[in-house]
Specification:
The protein is built from eleven helices and twelve strands. Pfam families: HTH_11 (PF08279), WCX (PF25583), WYL (PF13280).
């Protein structure tokens, strides 16, 4: 087990101690965690320092570690029916963490709650849950990144610099990075790491899936006092960070109501047109992500500004049409491409 996986490993130690009525020796903990005895002791001491009620009891020549039986953290009054329902509905949202220690613990909580409910209430909850579905659609399997996620969590908690190998979206070569991790961000079914990249000397967004080597160093860092996560993502249409752009898009009458139903970006402004369509405007960081959004609407969306985005959409449509043996009339000006993005590259 790699050193950076402390968070997941210590989580498992807690779960083992919870289920071990007679406690466990440090040697047994080391064996089940596949770590050295010294590492097992360090994990136990870290958990004690974090406030978990662990104690040791001498048994012959060995000492057994236990959780205090009567100790309870301060928890709310018993859950209400609607709170239980929200827990069950929200469980679907954690499917992205399937295969990781976090998802298994969440499932354990739900199973214990269900075990406490009378059959009639349980049947009622199941009938309501059957009428709802949270999440769904394409998702990533983060079970295979369980150790990476655990190490990143540990680095964020301890304020320690990471060394990682990273494949950017548009490159066929892996780059080695040193990153001070500031925040783990779950957005649109993807887990991102946001931190200061020493290679680029600026705050960057890294996609966890594209990290293929990770080492937790002993170097410490502090998040700058002037860093604000909310300010960092404020202008992004989704996650990318580039120069601010003023965008105006005309939406057809057929799709105007659907587009109006959502807040696509905090900066959006909508102007209704006489024919029933709308013009929707944004002030966003970069054009790549909003270009994909426009393309997803097909002929129902027409870019009015900026010209750069209009040309990019035209070029994308022409390339798509050529896949089917057709071609659009040549644009009067060449499309602009190759912009830089602050999603790690």
């Amino acid at each position: 087990m790699m050193r950076g996986d402390q968070l997941s490993r210590q989580w498992r130690v807690l779960r083992q101690l919870e289920s071990a009525k007679n406690g466990m020796t440090a040697a047994r903990i080391a064996e089940t965690s596949a770590v050295s005895l010294r590492t097992a002791y360090r994990d136990l001491y870290d958990l004690q320092l974090a406030g978990f009620p662990l104690y040791t009891e001498k048994e012959g020549k060995a000492s057994r570690w236990r959780l205090m039986e009567d100790y309870r953290f301060k928890i709310p009054e018993p859950f209400t029916l609607t709170e239980l329902l929200c827990l069950h509905l929200g469980g679907d949202l954690l499917d992205v963490f399937q295969g990781t220690v976090f998802q298994s613990s969440q499932q354990s909580v739900l199973e214990k709650i269900r075990a406490m409910l009378p059959p009639e209430t349980l049947a009622y909850l199941d009938r309501i849950r059957a009428a709802y579905r949270m999440g769904g659609g394409p998702c990533k399997n983060y079970g295979r990144f369980s150790e990476v996620i655990g190490r990143i969590n540990q680095a964020v908690a301890d304020g320690r610099t990471l060394e990682l190998g990273y494949w950017s979206l548009r490159s066929n070569q892996r780059t080695s990075r040193r990153v001070d991790p500031y925040k783990i961000w779950f957005y649109d079914d993807t887990i991102y790491l946001i931190g200061h990249c020493h290679l680029r000397d600026e705050v960057r967004t890294f996609v966890v899936d594209r990290i293929n080597m990770l080492h937790l160093t002993d170097d410490r860092f502090e998040i700058p006092a002037d860093f604000s996560f909310d300010a960092y993502i404020r202008n992004s249409f989704k996650v990318m960070q580039e120069a601010l752009q003023a965008v105006i898009i005309r939406i057809s009458p057929a799709w105007a109501r659907w587009v109006e139903e959502k807040v696509w970006h905090k900066s959006q402004q909508i102007q209704k047109l006489i024919d029933g369509g709308i013009e929707i405007s944004f002030s966003v960081a970069g054009l790549d992500e909003i270009r994909q959004w426009v393309l997803s609407l097909g002929p129902e969306a027409v870019v009015l500004a900026p010209e750069e985005l209009k040309q990019d959409v035209r070029q994308s449509l022409q390339q798509a049409l050529e896949q089917y043996g057709g071609a659009l009339e040549e644009a009067s000006e060449p499309a602009i491409s190759g912009r830089k993005s602050r999603v790690a590259s």
